Structures are given as structure tokens and as C-alpha cells.
């Protein structure tokens, strides 16, 4: 079975089950991950994929570019200015604290060197609300909590990226370490991501150019493709370019943002699911067993200690209720950015690439399975109607009827 056939089949199944997934603990992301694992070389062997395959690297690159581009569009500068207080705590304190606590676990529990441990911390620090969709999309969850999770997850992928690249460069050793060149690539990516969409939006506002209603959704797509092409030609960092481009479009092109939003999210979702399928195919029973009990314990602690402790410290005195803080602390799922960063490390050729990837893979697998299967349960925690037992409402109605019938 080819990769395309496998993806099309699982995608059709996911579409047919999507309504059920919105109401239950069934997760589309988990479906693709498990399907990749079962179809991969480790189990059925009908889909073959290795880290060195061109399709793996290309798919991961395109998927992360699309995700960061659409993430950036959700958090224009105006949105950040009006809703920065709580997300600022999560990003300014929570992200680095999560990185450090995770690195401490990797160093002292697994025995990795400090740089490799910091690399793993940077890879696992970003969060993804896709695996907590029922919580983020539930209108009975406090708006500030949903906004906090959305803004945090939209920004932290891009913020974690420089740390991943720097620690990866340091891990590669002095022969491959060119921090000046790395800084130039990161800076060039940001410049491309800001200049290209700004010029494109300004051109459309002149009297010589105007996008028709039919082609309006393609405007932002064309901007994204041009940013991608120029980033490849100039060797600017594609991922920072994508994130910066998304923020620039959201800031200066509200019309372009709105017309592209649904279309862009579908493109990013398809690429993301395809990459999850490939990621699952790379995970084998041998890989899951190779990490040993220390690796599994590290992955569990990364989910139940690193993020919760970092969030508890970050939100001291913030005014969030205990229930809200608990929800934010738990729903820090290791999402798609961590998947792609793990694939980047696996293909980097560093000496510890396999070990780092194995630990990251185990943490991501646990996160996807645990977070995507508990989002509905925790979302109901905020449903005030569900907090009252069903029998209570019936008993109260019967009591009121009896009182009305009773003689005065």
C-alpha cells in the first residue's frame, strides 16, 4: 500500500467519524497516529517510511510551515495587545520553566547530557490545542481560558523554534556550529515573513490591483507560497518566516485573514494529519521498548509535572480559579510542532539523534492519547448544567408541581 493510498483511506475514515469524534473521546489526531503505527514497518509493514526519505522531510517541512502560518494569523499584534496579560504569563514564564523542568528530568532521570536535555525540553515545550479541541471550542468554558490556550499555543511554536535550532546546532559540535550564520538565517526568515505580506497587502490596496471574490481566499495562500519560495532561495529560516508572515497578514490585512481562515485551516489540517500518519509509521514496537522504564517515566513526568509545575508558578496571583489553572496545567499537550521538531532532530545526523527522537516520540504518543481522550471530560467540568445531577432537576420539578397542587 502506498503512503497516498493509506492517507486517503484514513482521511475518509476520519471524515466519516468526525461527528462522533466531536461528541466522544475519539480523537482524529490519535486515529492517524495509531493508523500510521499499525500500517508501518513495526506491525503490518504495508507502509514503509524512514527518517531519511525525502517525502518525510518534505511533508514535515510543509506541514509545520502551514501550521505556523495559520497560527500566526490567529494572533495579530492587535489581538496580542488586547489579550496579553494571561498568555504573557504562560509564554514569558511557563514556556521557559517547562523547558527547564523537562531538561532536568531528561538529564537526571535518563542520563542525557545537558545540551541534549535542553534540546528535548525545547522540543516538548510547545503546546497544541488541537488535541484539546473540546475544551477550546466549548462556549461554556470561560472565554479568558479559551483565549489563553489559543494565544499561547499559537505563539509558543514560533518562540520555541530558535531554542530548538540553537541547541541542535550546539549538539552538532564545534565543527558544525556557526551561531552567526544561524542568527542570520533566523533574522532573514523574520524579514521575509514581514516584508512579503506587507508589500502584497499594500499593492492590493492601490487603484491598479484588486482581488475578486472568487480569488480572495487564494491571496493569503499566494503570500504564503511566495514566503516559502523566497525562504528556500535565500536560506532564511522557513518556520520563523511562516510565523512572521501569518502575524503580518493578521495585523495589516484583516480582509485577507478572514477570507483565508477556513481554507487555510483545512490545508494545514490535511498536512498535519499526513505528517502524523508518517510519524506513527516511524514508531515501532522496538522503538517504544528501547527507551526502557526510565524513558517512559520521563515521558509521564514531562506531562504530569513539568507543565503543571511551570503553570502553577507562572499564574501565582493571576486571579485564575483553581479549576481554570488545573485545566491550563493539564492541557499543555505536546502537539504537532513537537512532532516536526523531533523529525528534524532525527534527520540531523547528530550522535544522539535516535535517543532524543525516541524520548520525544514516547512523550508525544502519551500526550496525544491522554490529552485527546480527556478533553471532552474536562470540558464537561465547566458545563454548569452537567455539574447538577440529572435526578436533581427532575426532583425539583416534581416538588414544584406538588406545591402548586396543594391546597392553600
TrEMBL record:
Question: Which keywords, in A-to-Z order, does the entry hold?
Answer: Antiport, Cell membrane, Ion transport, Membrane, Transmembrane, Transmembrane helix, Transport
- Pfam assignment, any one: Na_H_Exchanger
TM region positions: 31-52, 59-78, 90-110, 117-138, 158-175, 182-201, 221-252, 273-291, 297-316, 328-350, 356-378
- Give a GO cellular-component term: plasma membrane
Q: Which GO biological process categories is it annotated with? A: proton transmembrane transport
Q: Which domain of life is it from?
A: Bacteria
Q: Which GO terms describe its molecular function?
A: antiporter activity
InterPro entries, alphabetically? Cation/H_exchanger_TM, Na+/solute_symporter_sf
Q: Which residues form the Cation/H+ exchanger transmembrane domain?
A: 13-374
Q: How does it sit in the membrane?
A: Multi-pass membrane protein
Listed PANTHER family = CNH1P (PTHR32507:SF8), NA(+)/H(+) ANTIPORTER 1 (PTHR32507)
Specify the protein name. NhaP-type Na+/H+ or K+/H+ antiporter
What species was this sequence derived from? Thermocatellispora tengchongensis
Lineage of this protein's species?
Answer: Bacteria, Bacillati, Actinomycetota, Actinomycetes, Streptosporangiales
Amino acid at each position: 500500500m502506498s503512503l497516498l493510498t493509506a492517507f486517503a483511506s484514513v482521511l475518509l475514515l476520519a471524515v466519516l467519524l468526525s461527528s462522533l469524534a466531536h461528541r466522544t473521546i475519539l480523537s482524529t489526531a490519535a486515529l492517524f497516529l495509531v493508523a500510521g503505527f499499525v500500517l508501518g514497518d513495526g506491525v503490518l509493514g504495508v507502509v514503509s517510511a524512514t527518517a531519511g526519505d525525502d517525502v518525510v522531510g518534505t511533508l514535515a517541512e510543509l506541514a509545520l510551515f502551514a501550521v505556523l502560518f495559520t497560527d500566526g494569523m490567529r494572533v495579530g499584534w492587535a489581538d496580542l495587545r488586547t489579550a496579553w496579560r494571561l498568555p504573557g504569563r504562560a509564554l514569558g514564564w511557563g514556556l521557559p520553566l517547562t523547558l527547564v523542568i523537562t531538561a532536568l528530568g531528561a538529564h537526571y532521570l535518563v542520563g542525557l547530557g545537558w545540551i541534549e536535555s535542553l534540546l528535548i525540553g525545547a522540543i516538548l515545550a510547545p503546546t497544541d490545542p488541537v488535541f484539546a479541541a473540546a475544551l477550546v471550542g466549548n462556549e461554556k468554558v470561560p472565554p479568558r481560558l479559551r483565549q489563553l490556550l489559543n494565544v499561547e499555543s499559537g505563539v509558543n511554536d514560533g518562540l520555541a523554534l530558535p531554542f530548538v535550532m540553537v541547541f541542535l546546532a550546539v549538539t552538532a559540535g564545534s565543527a558544525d556550529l556557526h551561531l552567526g550564520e544561524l542568527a542570520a538565517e533566523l533574522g532573514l526568515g523574520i524579514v521575509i515573513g514581514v516584508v512579503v505580506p506587507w508589500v502584497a497587502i499594500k499593492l492590493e490596496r492601490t487603484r491598479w490591483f484588486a482581488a475578486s471574490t472568487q480569488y480572495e481566499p487564494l491571496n493569503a495562500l499566494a503570500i504564503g507560497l511566495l514566503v516559502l519560495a523566497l525562504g528556500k532561495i535565500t536560506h532564511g529560516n522557513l518556520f520563523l518566516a511562516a510565523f512572521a508572515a501569518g502575524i503580518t497578514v493578521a495585523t495589516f490585512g484583516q480582509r485577507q485573514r478572514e477570507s483565508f481562515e477556513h481554507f487555510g485551516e483545512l490545508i494545514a489540517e490535511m498536512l498535519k494529519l499526513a505528517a502524523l500518519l508518517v510519524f506513527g509509521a516511524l514508531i515501532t514496537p522496538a522503538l517504544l521498548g528501547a527507551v526502557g522504564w526510565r524513558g517512559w517515566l520521563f515521558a509521564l513526568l514531562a506531562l504530569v509535572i513539568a507543565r503543571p509545575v511551570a503553570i502553577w508558578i507562572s499564574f501565582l496571583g493571576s486571579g485564575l480559579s483553581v479549576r481554570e489553572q488545573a485545566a491550563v496545567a493539564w492541557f499543555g499537550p505536546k502537539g504537532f510542532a513537537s512532532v516536526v521538531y523531533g523529525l528534524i532532530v532525527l534527520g540531523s545526523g547528530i550522535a544522539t539523534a535516535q535517543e532524543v527522537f525516541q524520548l520525544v516520540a514516547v512523550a508525544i504518543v502519551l500526550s496525544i492519547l491522554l490529552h485527546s481522550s480527556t478533553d471532552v471530560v474536562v470540558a464537561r467540568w465547566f458545563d454548569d448544567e452537567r455539574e447538577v445531577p440529572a435526578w436533581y432537576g427532575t426532583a425539583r420539578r416534581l416538588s414544584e408541581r406538588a406545591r402548586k397542587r396543594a391546597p392553600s
